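Retro notes (design track)

What went well: tokenization of the new backbones is finally stable.
What didn't: we kept losing track of which sequence belonged to which structure.
Fix going forward: every design gets posted as structure first, then sequence, in one message. First example under the new rule, 318 residues:
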């Protein structure tokens, strides 16, 4: 009988330890998710604010038939500043923040979760993923974030290309679009967005993670310096945005058709229209050189901020 009581006591203690271990693990998982959300939100906000004037200028050229050049982009920035004031260069940035904060938070947090899931599936728990799962994790993260925040991206594009008299604030954009064009309009351009975000997010995360992995292998240091992270992020942004740029032009045309005089159409009809009117290279890659300037800066700031915030939060928690 003594042995039975002792065995029961041992089982009870083991069960209690299992429950306690599960609770600790669950608490740790929740902390990791919250840490990723907070770090991603800050990373997105800093990166987009830093390049907002260049981003607005790029969008204006994307949705018009004007020929792009660095000189014309500078003239547009200069005359916008003269006619509307310095802060007008950041017009639409409030809508950008409303979109980019949840977008970046979801994307970075989803990426960490997809890495853990794929790591368990492929047997690489706690280790760097091999190339294909690494690419898949980035693509899934970008698709998840884009699907959940798309209407905010459309609103931001509308505010960037219209005079300030047309829309007084973000809510006014939603109200006028739903009243004058219908709620369906809030998802015009969604398909090219998803088709574009798969190579963009996939290649961006893949490139950044691969460069960090190579750095660790050849330098012998576990963590890169901040300026090295910036360089890795810049390379990631350059590759990701170059691969997905034509679809970015198409989605901007579809998003802003209601206020620029273009007809709402499908992806293929919008593509044909751009190529017919402006040519394949000049039309579909309009503003790409500006993206080569702002993209690496934004992505570099974004990835670096996320990583450093993660390191800081882990230290604070421990």
């Amino acid at each position: 009988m003594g042995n039975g009581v002792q065995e029961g006591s041992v089982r009870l203690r083991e069960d209690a330890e299992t429950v306690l271990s599960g609770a600790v693990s669950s608490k740790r998982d929740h902390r990791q998710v919250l840490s990723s959300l907070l770090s991603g939100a800050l990373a997105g906000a800093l990166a987009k604010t830093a390049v907002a004037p260049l981003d607005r200028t790029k969008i204006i050229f994307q949705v018009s038939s004007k020929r792009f050049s660095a000189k014309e982009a500078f003239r547009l920035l200069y005359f916008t500043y003269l006619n509307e004031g310095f802060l007008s260069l950041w017009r639409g940035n409030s809508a950008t923040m409303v979109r980019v904060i949840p977008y970046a938070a979801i994307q970075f947090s989803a990426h960490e979760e997809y890495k853990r899931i794929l790591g368990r599936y492929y047997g690489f728990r706690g280790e760097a993923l091999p190339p294909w799962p690494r690419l898949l994790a980035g693509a899934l993260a970008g698709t998840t974030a884009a699907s959940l925040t798309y209407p905010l991206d459309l609103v931001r594009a509308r505010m960037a290309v219209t005079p300030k008299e047309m829309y007084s604030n973000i809510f006014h954009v939603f109200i006028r679009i739903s009243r004058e064009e219908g709620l369906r309009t809030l998802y015009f351009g969604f398909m090219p967005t998803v088709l574009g975000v798969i190579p963009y997010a996939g290649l961006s995360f893949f490139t950044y993670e691969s460069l960090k992995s190579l750095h660790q292998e050849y330098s012998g240091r576990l963590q890169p310096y901040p300026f090295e992270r910036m360089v890795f992020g810049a390379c990631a942004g350059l590759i990701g945005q170059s691969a997905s740029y034509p679809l970015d032009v198409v989605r901007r045309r579809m998003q802003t058709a209601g206020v620029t005089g273009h007809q709402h159409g499908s992806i293929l009809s919008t593509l044909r229209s751009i190529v017919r009117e402006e040519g394949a290279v000049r039309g579909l890659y309009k503003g790409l050189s500006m993206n080569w300037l702002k993209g690496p800066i934004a992505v570099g700031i974004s990835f670096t901020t996320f990583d450093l915030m993660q390191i800081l939060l882990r230290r604070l928690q421990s």
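Added context from the reviewer: Residues 194-286 form one domain.
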